[in-house]
TrEMBL record:
<feature type="domain" description="AAA+ ATPase">
    <location>
        <begin position="15"/>
        <end position="138"/>
    </location>
</feature>
<dbReference type="Pfam" id="PF13635">
    <property type="entry name" value="DUF4143"/>
</dbReference>
<protein>
    <submittedName>
        <fullName>ATPase</fullName>
    </submittedName>
</protein>
<dbReference type="InterPro" id="IPR041682">
    <property type="entry name" value="AAA_14"/>
</dbReference>
<dbReference type="InterPro" id="IPR003593">
    <property type="entry name" value="AAA+_ATPase"/>
</dbReference>
<dbReference type="InterPro" id="IPR025420">
    <property type="entry name" value="DUF4143"/>
</dbReference>
<dbReference type="InterPro" id="IPR027417">
    <property type="entry name" value="P-loop_NTPase"/>
</dbReference>
<dbReference type="Pfam" id="PF13173">
    <property type="entry name" value="AAA_14"/>
</dbReference>
């Protein structure tokens, strides 16, 4: 299976800028890199693949970055060098800068890098104009169906999503898959594991081993406080992030909380949504809302894999899931929320799109009271307000996802 990001990466192969593919661990970056290598062979594009977990290769490149040129095939055209796990280099930013500045006509680097590389300020400062960063999230629902071998359901999903009158006899199967996706998330290894108990064990492995590697590589000293913060954010997903309150609860400094929030974002576990106001000063002084980027990891942090109907947090889980759907479609930057000091609130506002819109997400349609949003509608008549609910479930559910 090819991820949706594959086409964007393939289209960037002939660009002058280097390509950096980053994202949370275990999202499939190395697999995607191998697929791009195969694509190059099919297109007769000269390429070489280097995995820096190979200590011999790593040592040679650390000794002298220009040693990379010795691995290139002897051809006259530009060679694409795929470098997996580039963060293992002693100075990956300098490595990329040197090769771009002196040999950009000879080699195009396509590299995967973990948060330890991407979080480095030197990466941003020294590579301005020399690279484009692509972020690989865990799988979307369409990718989930494809990876799970549910091709027929995927075709039904596409059909009913694009036709407002379409109906399907497969609706109950789509609902079951959607609920499983909400509970266990979109990590590829979790999707392809058929046993529910094993899914949970593998999520715990991601939580305990791979997130711990993020912690170690990011220089976190108080591992216990970091995990406590992570669990609090999971429990409060969709809520305002009050740094002072979190510092009091965890008994750590506010600077430490801010640092941990920064790390969680750069490790692609957390996204912060900004408030929307026409007054920029107000916008910059208001607190963000936090969402986890994978609901399976969220449920693992809370140790809660109960079915949706009996969950006390089903509303929060649904809002987090809807946010993730918006991020899959539009990225993080265009997404805001709206809230006033007297308690008026709309979950999501996308005001900068050509066709702006806002969304209020409620688990149950019966919870929607349109009068509660009168102030938003009056204040921003140019931004249509939509409602998104999970129950009752029908074909329109998927059409509501495709605003």
């Amino acid at each position: 299976m090819r991820r949706a990001l594959f086409d964007q990466l393939a289209a960037h192969l002939d660009k002058k800028e280097f390509t950096v593919l980053t994202g949370a661990r275990q999202t499939g970056k190395s697999t995607l890199l191998r697929q791009l290598e195969i694509h190059c062979k099919e297109q007769s594009l000269p390429s070489v693949f280097l995995n820096l977990e190979n200590r011999d290769v790593l040592s040679i490149l650390n000794e002298r970055p220009l040693n990379l040129l010795n691995y290139l095939p002897d051809v006259k055209q530009r060679v694409i060098a795929f470098i997996d796990e580039i963060q293992y280099l002693d100075d990956p930013s300098n490595f990329l800068k040197l090769l771009y500045d002196e040999h950009v006509q000879q080699v195009k680097i396509v590299a995967t890098g973990s948060s330890a590389f991407y979080i480095d300020d030197h990466f941003r400062d020294s590579l301005g104009g020399r690279k484009r960063v692509f972020q690989l999230l865990t799988c979307s629902f369409s990718e989930y169906l494809q990876l799970n071998g549910k091709d027929q359901l995927l075709q039904e999903l596409k059909r009913i999503s694009s036709n407002e009158k379409a109906r399907t006899s497969q609706l109950d199967y789509l609902r079951q898959e959607w609920e499983s996706y909400m509970l266990y998330g979109g990590y590829p290894a979790i999707i392809t594991e058929p046993d529910k108990k094993e899914k949970i064990e593998k999520l715990r492995e991601i939580r305990d081993s791979f997130v711990k590697r993020d912690i170690l590589e990011s220089g976190v000293q108080n591992e216990t406080a970091f995990f406590h913060l992570f669990r609090l954010l999971a429990e409060q997903s969709g809520s305002l992030i009050n740094v002072h309150e979190l510092s009091v609860t965890l008994r750590i400094k506010t600077d430490t909380v801010n640092n941990y929030l920064h790390i969680l974002q750069k490790c692609f576990h957390l996204a912060l949504v900004k408030p929307y106001f026409r007054n920029l000063r107000k916008e910059l002084t208001k607190m963000p809302k936090g969402f986890l980027l994978d609901t399976g990891l969220r449920n693992c942090l809370l140790n809660n894999f109960q079915q949706l109907q009996i969950r006390m947090d089903r509303g929060e889980l649904w809002e987090n899931m809807y946010f993730r759907n918006l991020m899959d479609r539009y990225g993080l930057d265009p997404i805001y929320y709206w809230r006033t000091s007297d308690g008026n609130e709309v979950d999501f506002v996308l005001p900068e799109k050509e066709n702006p819109f806002a969304v209020e997400a409620k688990y149950d349609k019966a919870q929607i009271k349109s009068g509660k949003y009168k102030k938003f509608v009056e204040t921003y008549p140019e931004i249509p307000l939509h409602y998104a609910w999970l129950h009752p479930f029908d074909e329109d559910f998927f059409r509501r996802l495709n605003l």
